[in-house]
Structure prediction request, 1219 residues.
Amino acid sequence: MLTKFETKSNRVKGLSFHSKRPWILASLHSGVIQLWDYRMGTLIDRFDEHDGPVRGVHFHKSQPLFVSGGDDYKIKVWNYKLHRCLFTLLGHLDYIRTVQFHHEYPWIVSASDDQTIRIWNWQSRTCISVLTGHNHYVMCASFHPKEDLVVSASLDQTVRVWDIGALRKKTVSPADDILRLSQMNTDLFGGVEAVVKYVLEGHDRGVNWAAFHPTLPLIVSGADDRQVKLWRMNDTKAWEVDTLRGHMNNVSCVMFHAKQDIIVSNSEDKSIRVWDVTKRTGIQTFRREHDRFWILAAHPEMNLLAAGHDSGMIVFKLERERPAFSVSGDTMFYAKDRFLRFFEFSNQRDVQVIPIRRPGSTSLNQGPRTLSYSPTENAVLVCSDVDGGSYELYIIPKDSFGRGDVAQEAKRGVGGSAVFVARNRFAVLDKGSNQVLVKNLKNEIVKKSPLPIATDAIFYAGTGNLLCRAEDRVVVFDLQQRMVLGELQTPFVKYIVWSNDMETVALLSKHTIVIASKKLVHQCTLHETIRVKSGAWDENGVFIYTTLNHIKYCIPNGDSGIIRTLDVPIYITKVSGNTIFCLDRDGKNKAIVIDATEYIFKLSLMRKRYDHVMSMIRSSQLVGDAMIAYLQQKGFPEVALHFVKDERTRFNLALESGNIQIAVASAKEIDDKDHWYRLGVEALRQGNVGIVEYAYQRTKNFERLSFLYLITGNMEKLSKMLKIAEVKNDVMGQFHNALYLGDVCERVKILENAGHLPLAYITASVHGLQDVAERLAAELGDDLPSLPEGKVPSLLMPPAPISCGGDWPLLRVMRGIFEGGLESTGRGAAANEEEEEGGEGDWCEDLDMADVENIENGDIVTVLEDAEVPEENDEEGGWELEDLELPEDSTPKASVNVRSSVFVAPTTGMPVSQIWIQRSSLAAEHAAAGNFDTAMRLLNRQLGIRNFTPLRPMFLDLHAGSHTYLRAFSSAPVISVAVERGWTESSSPNVRGPPALVFNFSQLEEKLKAGYKATTAGKFTEALRLFLSILHTIPVIVVESRREVDEVKELIIIVKEYVLGLKMELKRREIKDDPVRQQELAAYFTHCNLQTPHLRLALLNAMTVCYKAKNLSTAANFARRLLETNPAIENQAKTARQVLQAAERNMTDTAQLNYDFRNPFVVCGATYVPIYRGQKDVSCPYCSSRFVPSQDGQMCNVCELSVVGADASGLLCSPCQVR
Prediction:
């Protein structure tokens, strides 16, 4: 059983499939009727008007109607489009068990516990016949699919067949009058409309169900005696043919399968059983744990069944319907009706090749599941689920094509799946031992190969390679080298499809498609809500696939879409051009012609084949919001522009693509303030002053205009703005314009007119206008404001702009690829020249920055070339002022290259910092690029570093040191320039070197020498600081050669020993009251790997400490070790000899130390206790200091960076380690 859909609900008593849509009705014991979409798995609607259980429900074949009957004695007819009950048929006096529409007439048959069957006309809404005769509850009644018969089953232990021919004659109005007369007599005096044709007796208990065979004169019935009986009938009589025994409880429903010779029954014994009609034996049984089955339904057209039980229902298939096929070049082998067939795509020749054995099947699902074909040997492997998985190998004789009747003995074997892996070798999966057996064409094992993962199926993956499938992943396995070539985590893969060049593979799961390379490098994943059925690659590298109800496409970047809808599922075998070859569920070959325009268009865009895109835009009907949204989303607003007629959308797209000219035209059409404002903002961003001015004029935005004239240095127009403000009586505007102009007299005049006399006086006197100042002083009299003493006033004048008047210079760029061909208006010969100029090739490569033509490209007086804009807009219309001589308000020309019609911005390059990190795994280079986050992640992965506080200044120095900064001029931002390592005059300008780094290895060597010096001088704190600083710098060091890498690693070990020793010595000096611990720490210091002069000092120190504490034996050991180093300083040797002499007289220790110099040990970096050889320890992944196991997961006390015991890949400090 292949379960397709399952619901959880109250007990299901009635079921009905819709004939066309993927819908099923379920009527529940709770009184609710549910309408489900079994393909999507969603509840579409629920109808809740019956009072009590609803036992029967049925869809009409063609009308949007269904009928239901319940325990409230009501039959209701519903319209599912209107979501309501149309009417109720009343007449039954007890529970209604089943209801059914007639396939042709407007009739409903109903069976009831009132021991009658009624036939109703749903158009006239009347009962047209009552069939009486049963003497117990009637459990079911149904029409014959073709003849005028009704079959019913009752608890009176009989099945009755009724002839309703008379009823049909009465319904179809008679043609001649004599017949009509007899009809009237029947109506007046009562006539028999339905008669019992046969009464079938044989069951020992009440019969629950009876059903006709769709084509043969057979009836099947199921009863409380736990038996299923088969009956045959002819024109005169009916008789029992056989009894099928096996159910353990009452049989609740039974039916014939529409397409196969089988009977399906279900029962209160919680099982569904499948029986062979010809052999009359049980084939298969499906059980549920806790749910009794009550009802069965079959789809009128598809191979689907449904069963209702105590806690819901299931929709299922008995067998897979996918034909097994194998495509090789232009040919295909496929299995159909026990034959192997051959199909040629080019001429659509379809021939039978050989019969393939189908065993005397005792169960379903025994047909071929997969085929594998070897074209050179003309051999076919057929795999099926017989015996838990087996294969058959056929060698096809050349002459058997077209005859197809000669049976040949196949070579057989058992195995999960079998595929050809070479010309004359095939691989068979042995699931039990999880290995692959490679066999030759004689079916002999040549080689065995264990598999790397628990495999449940194998697929072909190129010669000698297998694709192995596990529950959650697939791997490509090389059988020769026995190694995994690639691995990918996926949902459970059902089918795989290789592209023609075997470079790409599509992995098909139930609801997912994963596309990957031949080494299983993931490319994209698609999720479908509806089950994925099949797929094939077309020659452009587009994957065409089918779901249950669509043909869809997926282009390599993961974009997908629908090509067309399907009525029934198909299995794609090959895609050639715009033809899809496929097999349907009956194994018939079909060719479907599709419209590939949409995905070819998207593919051309993705691959930057702009010539194709151009021709498709010109010729095809690619329109619609979806296409425009797609183009916008993919960054092609200038293409979308050519599809759009709506001015507002055109305006938005034009702004997005920087096409000012079209934006101006659209803004004029729309003519509202917001659009002019946005146009002004975009034009200002492009430095197109003319358009900015035009936009501000259209919206009468005087303040912005004044400021624009100020920053472009257009004093003449600024003074006109002053006059406008004066006429409009806008005092603040006047003052601002006067301020921008630096016109002091005007400012004084404005202040005076506005009544601000003190301000006017100060302005005049500060700027040296003495006569005006005196006149104002006389007016002010005693209110004269005082000027501050000793301050030198400065003239308040706006700075002059660096370049006056024109637009910003723009890069000269070749025309956009979509321009020339799409301009709607012809522009004569010049236009032709333009087109030739622009049609060279991909736009990104044709930047010509050599000669930026120095044009004043935004002159206000020029008019747009296109006759879109009136030649001149006199200012009277724009400003509504009459007595001012203002600039002519004509539309300026958008700034573009002289010969180009549209400016197309060049693509921005990749920032250097991004180039640096793209190929680098070195943390230092990521930090230099400013990408601290990834630098930290790398260090964490490589060295287990978690404490980044000591590295913060290093990171900042690296970043600052890899860039230099240039100031162009005061009003421009500072320009940052990347500094590259190893740059020379001869370096190529297009190739980026790695970043220059401020830290290098020689600096560390200097620091090491300084550290040694400080140690010798006894400046331990200073020495510790230097050594720690080396440890903190090494993670961000980069060296060139392997030799230097080894030196860096060596340096870590040297420095780590000193840091540990110095930390112990400093700790010893802090302890005042614990002489034993002091001696131990002094002793451990002598076991650090130090330079000989430092070791002598440490030994001398330890000897002195122990001698003073009367531990003479231990002191003597240090004295001996000191003398072994041959100290050059006589004083040291002398002291050591004296200690030895004193100790030999009394070789004792007053205190017991945790120190055994005979047993080799290392010192724990955190607790400072010895870890003797053989004891467990953990280490720091960076500095390799050792620690007792309790320190696992703590911060390393030595380097103060890494976590003890962390997993790390190791120090990476040179590009040569990566290559």
User: Anything to note?
Assistant: The two ends are 55 Å apart (CA to CA). The CA atoms of residues 1100 and 1122 lie 7 Å apart. Confidence is low (pLDDT under 50) at residues 823-890, 894-901.
